[in-house]
Amino acid sequence: MRGMIEEITAALGANSLILRGGFLFPNDEGAPRDALGVPAKSVLLVGQAGAAPWPHFQRWLAQQPGIANPLDTWSRAVIGAVAETFGARAVSPSDKPYLPFQQWAMRAEGLKPSPLGILMHPRYGLWHAYRGALLFEEEIVLPEPRETIHLCDTCVDKPCLKSCPVDAYSTDGFDYEACLAHVRGANGGPCREDGCLDRNACPYGTRYRYPRDVQAFHMASFAGL
Questions:
Q1: How far is residue 158 from each of residues 111, 151, 152, 164, 204, measured CA to CA in Å?
Q2: Which of 20, 94, 96, 140 is positioned for an S-S bond with 47, CB 3.0–4.6 A?
Q3: Residue finishing a domain among 115, 148, 181
């Protein structure tokens, strides 16, 4: 089994994607089922640290002009190819009906949400993502995640709740409409060009912060620009 994990890791690494932990579905509890109703026994999360996959995605995108939802499409293609090689089924966070990816990620890596809702990673901070998952009909056992310090608990000033010009994030949650209106509006240039100001204010994982063009791409996708 260890050999297969290493092979999956290498296959994902060809596009700078990484395994983000995994777990078993005990007694099929919460297990997704395939088209024939067969439940998965195991899930391996696939994602990224920082913007490492960006050059691979950009090279692919240059050959796919005008494609809708390009990052999702690229992720599905890459992860799907790995799934086919190793006898798994690939699923995506944007698949409908939606699968509980955030709950899976918390279970697989022992992470907790930041005030922005993004899971806080002890190394990557807020600069990471989950791009998909591999579902297996057999048991794939991975080590239990280590217990880690939730960095948000050590952060007294909470700059991530003080930098947004329209206070979109607060202890009450995320004001989606206020954020969207600001990003699309005349004063939203800094957010459109540099990314979420609250997210950028977080002091953790800054070496993994997405470059400006990557943040602009994600903001344009969010705002439908």
A1: 18, 11, 8, 12, 11
A2: 20
A3: 148
Arithmetic mean of pLDDT, 196-202: 97
Same domain, 109 and 195: no
**SS3 state at 121:** strand
In the numeric block, which tokens belong to residue 221? 């996708």
Whether residues 77 and 188 share a domain: the answer is: no
Contact 86, 7 (CB under 8 A): yes
Residue 91, CA atoms < 13 Å, CB-side half-sphere: 23
Q: Where are the beta strands (DSSP E) in the chain?
A: 18-24, 42-49, 89-91, 112-113, 119-120, 128-136, 169-170, 173-174
CB atoms within 10 A of CB 106: 16
The single-letter code of the amino acid at 223 is: A
Structural domain ending residue among the three candidates 93, 115, 148: 148
Write the pLDDT tens digit of every residue in 52-102: 999 999 999 999 878 888 999 999 999 999 999 999 999 999 998 999 999
- Closest to 9 (Cα-Cα) out of 60, 92, 61, 85: 85
Report yes or no: 34 and 90 within 8 Å, Cβ to Cβ: no
